[in-house]
Backbone:
C-alpha cells in the first residue's frame, strides 16, 4: 500500500543510492552482508526500513548472528521504522501475553522468528519435513516486531530465553 509508509520517512539521497546498490544483491545471502557493511551510511529510517525489508524478502540460510546484531541496534525510531504503520497498529492491538508457534528445522539451535498463526506453523512444518510444532508464550514487551508482509503474522524476538516453551504438539493434532 502506498499509504502504509512510516511517518519517519524523509527522502534522503544516500538512502536512495543505497536502495539502487542493494538491488544487485536482492534475494541472496549477500544482501545482509552488504547492508551490514554499509548501514552506517543510512539515515535511521533507512536503516530500519531496509533491514526489515531484507528480512521479509530473504532470510533463508543467512547468518543469524548478523541479523541479531543488526536488529539489536539502538538507532532511534526503531518501532516506527522497522514496522509499517499497519503492522505497528496491529502490534499495538496485540494482548500483553502472546502465544507463538514455530516449526523447528531438524537440529535447529537458534532462531528469532515465530508466528501467531497455527496455519503458518503447519505450512512450515511440512516445508521443513517435521511432524511437530512448538508452542511458546512471550510477553509483548519482549517482541521486537510484528511483520505482516508475507501473510505469516511473523513475530521477532531476539532473545529466545525470553520465550517460554509451553508444549510441543504433533502436526496431526494441529487444526488449520
Residues:
Amino acid at each position: 500500500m502506498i499509504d502504509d509508509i512510516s511517518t519517519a520517512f524523509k527522502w534522503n539521497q544516500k538512502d536512495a543510492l543505497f536502495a539502487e546498490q542493494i538491488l544487485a544483491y536482492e534475494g541472496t545471502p549477500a544482501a545482509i552482508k552488504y547492508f551490514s557493511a554499509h548501514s552506517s551510511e543510512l539515515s535511521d529510517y533507512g536503516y530500519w526500513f531496509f533491514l526489515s525489508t531484507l528480512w521479509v524478502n530473504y532470510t533463508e540460510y543467512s547468518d543469524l548472528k548478523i541479523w541479531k546484531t543488526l536488529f539489536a541496534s539502538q538507532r532511534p525510531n526503531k518501532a516506527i521504522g522497522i514496522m509499517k504503520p499497519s503492522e505497528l497498529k496491529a502490534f499495538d492491538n496485540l494482548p500483553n501475553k502472546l502465544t507463538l508457534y514455530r516449526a523447528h528445522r531438524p537440529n535447529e539451535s537458534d532462531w528469532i522468528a515465530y508466528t501467531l498463526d497455527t496455519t503458518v506453523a503447519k505450512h512450515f512444518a511440512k516445508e521443513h519435513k517435521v511432524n511437530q510444532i512448538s508452542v511458546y508464550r512471550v510477553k509483548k514487551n519482549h517482541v521486537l516486531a510484528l511483520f505482516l508482509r508475507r501473510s505469516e503474522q511473523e513475530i521477532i524476538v531476539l532473545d529466545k530465553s525470553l520465550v517460554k516453551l509451553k508444549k510441543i504438539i504433533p502436526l496431526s493434532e494441529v487444526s488449520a
